[in-house]
Amino acid sequence: MAEPIYADDAAIISIGERFADLSLPKAEWTHAAHFAACIWLLHCRTDLHAERDMPGMIRRYNEATGGVNSDDAGYHETITQASIRATRAHLTSAPQPMTLQQIHAGLMKGPCGRKDWLLDYWSRANLMSRPARREWVDPDRAPLPF
Fold first, then answer.
1. Rounded mean pLDDT of the chain?
2. Is the pLDDT of residue 3 over 70?
């Protein structure tokens, strides 16, 4: 198991809750925090549908922390949806019982722990294109394994 980034389940829940209520400092909105928030949403907020609700949550969070959502910055649909798919697949395949911390550590130990993990499936030009930022664009290098 990877060395945990977060001390315990409470830390992951805190990331998710503070992301959702827009109180998470922008400096804490890291690559690992994106996945922690997704784990929280999928595991703790079953009243929400991640694929539908996380995009709006990210857009609101970006704006609340001084960011923009444009054709060149901020929210990115393909990255978000691919990350949700990866997190959902990891949650489904993780041995039970596991803590949220263990689930997050395992996800970060694998390919998703690399900030450039999506470049295994998309060319940089395709992934960083305006169409991919606006809507789902299928991978052009290899199919997603989940």
1. 96
2. no
Measured distance CA(12)–CA(60) in Å, rounded: 20
* Long-range contact set of residues 72-80: C-beta below 8 Å, sequence gap at least 24: 72/130, 72/133, 75/133, 76/132, 76/133, 77/132, 77/133, 77/134, 77/135, 77/136, 78/118, 78/122, 78/127, 78/132, 78/133, 78/135, 78/136, 78/137, 79/118, 79/127, 79/132, 80/54, 80/55
Take residue 17 and report the two structure tokens written for it: 């809750």
pLDDT tens-digit map of 57-83: 999 999 999 999 999 999 999 999 999
DSSP letter assigned to residue 27 = G
Considering only CA atoms, give the Rg of the chain.
Answer: 15
Helix (H) or strand (E) holding 83: helix 77-93
